[in-house]
Batch of 3 targets.
Target 1
Amino acid sequence: MSIKQTIFGAVAVAAMGVAGAASAADQQFVTIGTGGVTGVYYPTGGAICRLGNKGRKERGIRCSVESTGGSVYNTRTIRQGELDFGVVQSDVQAAALAGTGKFSEDGAYPELRALFSVHPEPMHLMARADAGIASVADLTGKKVNIANPGSGTRVLAETLMKYSGPSAADFSLAAELKSSEQAAALCDGKIDATIWAAGLPNGSSQEATSTCDVTLVPLAGANIDNLLGENSAYAAATIPGGMYAGND
């Protein structure tokens, strides 16, 4: 059974003026901000750096990767000049350019530039099979991880809740765990469900579904239709059946 989810593209972004090549005589060090080590951003950033470093003698550029809090963190840290590049959800990038959403107090950041699109990011709602969660509405009264502040997943969790009814105040616990912490917390019973956006497949979902009985909850219905209809940054997507253990 396929599972329909919302989706975004991850993009590599940089401050304007950073991406120029350096000469071999003037070695330049650049850093790519990514996300949690069990997500897809971290290995993606590592792969980009490995490709770039193959020609570092000719270009004079040495690339390193940094595990960070995610999209919002990466965007702000690029703006502050502490990161050269970052992997960022495309909806977060759009908000940063316009100075809306999480960046309403920061103001618009017109100097931000997208270099290329990396991969789509389906949203996962993972729940313990014994938690009685078959839809977003069933999260009421449950222990739910809404992701760490500064992550793109947190933006998505808040968007999902806005269109689906339950808010963080309706949960018995609104956890703010990083992606690297969520699988263990789910299987240990510390949380009943977690909201998670990442490329396919990803280590955090694989860890959870292979360690304990975890169900990927379908995101479908009038609430999701309204979310997609009113937010052009998102589109419908499908997580292929059988990609994760126990979810045929």
Target 2
Amino acid sequence: MRIGFITNGTEQDLQFAKENGFPCVEINIHNNLAEWEARKETYKEWLERYGIEVNAMGLWGRNFISPDESERERCFDELRRHIELASFFGAKVIMVGGGYNEGQPIKEQALRACELFPPYIELAESKGLKFAFYNCHWTNHITGPEAWDIVLDKLPTVGIKFDPSHPFYDGLDYLQHARDYGHRFYHIHAKGCVKIAGKPFDDPPAGMDQIDWRSLFAILYKHNYQGDINLEPHSPTWLGERYYKGLLFSKRFLEQFIL
């Protein structure tokens, strides 16, 4: 296991990573896919200059199972381009949501995803990429056991990008999720979270929060987890002048669990 972080895409982030012992960063694509494609040569030059790897890439917020055929085609075309970009950067894992249709049973959505994704899973794997579905709700129905039991069975080579904050905020047992499905975890996000009176309060750096990281790491070792842990700065409290300080705090905290 290695500790990396989700980058803003700046050269400064890569210089910080090199100077502070982060071997890898993660790139997440929102509505900026074309921008990343346009600057890929420059960014790869920076990666080589600082000796930093891209270990994972995420494509967020696409409704791959939309009833609108044109929307589906656009989303899958962006997924194809995302796979090519991840391969160019030498990433190990790509992460996407499964799409979401309000009011449709999860089982129906999961079966539809299993029909549509295989060509793109095969494309990713042909380029040496592992394919994972993230577990947050952003345009995604593949967030927990109800969908996992279908998708992981019908798509036996795919995995899960796991972030314990999502089940934590949903009032679910994230340790049980890790116990039962940790053998299919391909990538992990470490984002701290604090609830007060049952409601989200803030997302501080991992280690300054309420997640039981000790037990979670114990479960990961039980499953012989071979992926990385990427820190996710999330709260506005920690995205300004505290940005790098928060990353260093979480790195120091989580390193005690890296054997």
Target 3
Amino acid sequence: WYENYAKIKMRPSTYLTYHGYIENHIKPQLGKIPLNDLTTLHLQQFYKKLLAEGRVERIEAQKQPKGLSAKTVRNIHQMICSAYNLAMEQKLVNKNPTQGCALPKVEHKEMKTLTSDQLGAFFQEARDSGVYELYYLDLATGLRRGELLGLKWTDIDLDRGVLKIQRAISRQSGKVVEAP
């Protein structure tokens, strides 16, 4: 599923994220269980463990909780579900153990915004640094960082007031990559 289907359907950054899920979590915990033998209980126990102690130990993650977020666990579940759905379509398995799993609820955190004074100071610093237009465009449109960095002059039609988002820039394996 990962190599033959997911790779051609998703963005390179998503593909790399899935690779991390597989190598760091799924293979070590579930990799020895044959697909037809994997049960909903196996998955439920796996998700519980991820929530409690699933974080891979890295220097940048030392001050974070030991468990993965509910959103990450849900993403892993969705990936496993997608793989099982394809396996069922191809008659490789006769059941999808992801059906019936109780998933953690995602907690929506309240957005923290700048006060008027903070925003004024921010824009003044941006003007002084020569990046005012970039930050103004970002705050006015809500573009993602990669979309903002992917803009070219040809994407902007000042006469019509149109901005086209054609590409995104990201860093993958230490290299800067352009994606649609």
